[in-house]
Amino acid sequence: MGFPSTGMEAAYRNPLEEVKKFFKIFHPDHYKVFNLCPPDERNYPKGSFVNYDGFAFEDHMPPMLSQIPEFTLNASSFLAEHPENVVAIHCKAGKGRSGCMAACLLLKEGLSGTPEEAIDHFDTKRAADKRGVTIPSQRRYVYYYDRVLHTGCMPQLQEFNLTEVILEGHNILHPFFELSMHMDGFSTSWNSRTTMSNEYSREELNTGSKSRWKCEDIKVGGDIRIDFYQAPRDFFDGDRYLFRLWLHLNYLPPDGHIAFPFEDLDISRSDKEFLKFPTDLQVRLKFSPVDEPGSDEDPLSPTLPSARRSYEEDKAEIYYEELDPRSGEELLVQECLTQEEDYSTVTAYDSKAETPCPQPSAPRDSFEDNSD
Q1: Which CATH number does the domain housing residue 132 bear?
Q2: pLDDT of the residue at 192
Q3: Which pLDDT does position 233 carry in this prediction?
Q4: Phi and psi of 146, rounded to 5°?
Q5: Which of 242, 240, 236, 233 is nearest to 266 (CA)?
Q6: C-alpha span between 87 and 102 (Å, rounded)
Q7: Do the domain assignments include residue 170?
Q8: d(Cα 308, Cα 298) in Å, to the nearest integer?
Q9: 220 and 192 in one domain?
Q10: Domain final residue pick, 91, 119, 151
Q11: Do 223 and 121 sit in the same domain of this protein?
C-alpha cells in the first residue's frame, strides 16, 4: 500500500486516519504494518499502529540481500500466529520496494512457485497497467532470494577483485562511475575519477563508444551498487546522473564475468529518459576471486553450494559441483525441487563411481544465516 500520510500529502496518498480505521474495522488486533521508508525520507507519529516494524531501504533501490530473509521470517512468524492475521507492507507509492518484499514473501509462504510468478501476481493485483516492480535491480533481488530459499541458508560472503568495468554502445561524452560496497554492515565507496586506481581507454565503434576502466586493488564483496554519470561539459555544468545497477557478488557466473544489457539497467522508465540512451547500451563487469592463503576455513562449505554453481530458474533439477568434505573429491550434485513437499531434496553423486552420498535436505521454510 502507499504511505499512510498526513497533511497535504494525505490528499493524494493513503490518509493515515483512514488506514487506521480500515484495520480497526476489518482486521482488529490481527494486523502488522511494515514500513520500508527510511525515517529521514518520511515517517508518521509514533504509536500510529500498535503492531509495527521497519525494514528501511532507499527509494528506487533493492534491499540488501540480508534484509529480505529477516523481513520474511518476521512476517511469516506473525502470519503463523493466528489464521486471521494479515500483514501490510508499504513504502512511498507502494509499488517498487513494497512489491519487491511482497514477492519475496509470496515465495517464502509458498503462494508463488517462481520469482516471475510472484512478481506478476503482485503487479496484477497492485497496478492496473501491471507496472508494479519495474526497476531491474529490485526484480533481480527477488531472484536472489529465491536461490536463498532453494539452498536453505544465506551464502557465505566471498570477496572478489573488480578488474574491469566496460561501458559499451553509449553516446556519453565523459562517463565515469561511483562504486559502493555493502558487506557485513560495512560500507565503502570509490570514484573512478578521484579515488580509484584505474586505466581508462575509449574506442569509437559502429554501435557507439566503448569505454573501459581497468581497475587495480579494488576488493569488493556482498551487495554492490554502481552509479554512472557524465562529467561536466563546461565550467558551468555539473555532474549528470545517468543510471545505476545493483548486484550481489555471491551470484556471479563461474568465470566472474557478467553483462547487463539495456533492459537490465536501472534507467528511469519515462519515455524522455529512454530516448537519451541507445538500446545497444550495456555494462560488462569482470571480477576475479581474492585468494587468501593460510585460511583454515573451507571455501566450499558442505552445506552450501560453491560459487561455481550453475543455476537455471526454469528447471526442476539443478546441477552444480561441490567438494566432498570427507574425501576431498569433487562431486556432481543434483538438486531436485519438489513443490508438492515444498522443500529441496539434495542428492550428491561421486563423479567417477556415481554412488549416491547422503546430503542434508534444505527445508524451504527454514533459514540459517551463514554470512559471518
Answers
A1: 3.90.190.10
A2: 96
A3: 77
A4: -60, -35
A5: 242
A6: 10
A7: yes
A8: 15
A9: yes
A10: 151
A11: no
| Cα dihedral 272/273/275/281 (nearest 10) | -170
pLDDT, averaged per 10 consecutive residues of the chain (372 residues), comes to 85 89 95 94 88 94 96 97 97 95 97 97 91 95 97 92 96 93 88 94 91 95 96 82 95 96 87 75 95 41 29 38 50 42 34 35 38 42
Both 133 and 25 in a single domain? yes
The answer on 165 and 144 residing in a single domain is: no
Kindly give the residue spans of alpha helices, DSSP state H, lying in the chain: 16-26, 67-81, 96-108, 115-126, 136-151, 271-274
Rg of the chain in Å (alpha carbons) = 23
Domain that includes residue 136, residue range: 7-151
Helix (H) or strand (E) holding 213: strand 208-215
Strands 52-54 and 31-35: parallel
Are 134 and 205 contained in the same domain?
A: no
Cα–Cα distances (Å) from 370 to 74, 109, 133, 186, in that order, read 18, 22, 29, 17
Domain boundary among 151, 183, 206: 151
Give backbone dihedrals phi and psi of 189, rounded to 5 degrees, phi first.
Answer: -145, 160
What letter represents residue 308's amino acid? Answer: R
- Residue 162's pLDDT is 97
In sequence order, the 6+-apart residues with CB closer than 8 A to the CB of 248 are: 65, 141, 144, 155, 222, 223, 224
Asked if 167 and 243 sit in the same domain, the reply is yes
Instruction: Indicate which CATH number applies to the domain containing 261.
Output: 2.60.40.1110
**What CA–CA distance (Å, rounded) separates 76 from 191?**
40
**Domain count of the chain?**
3
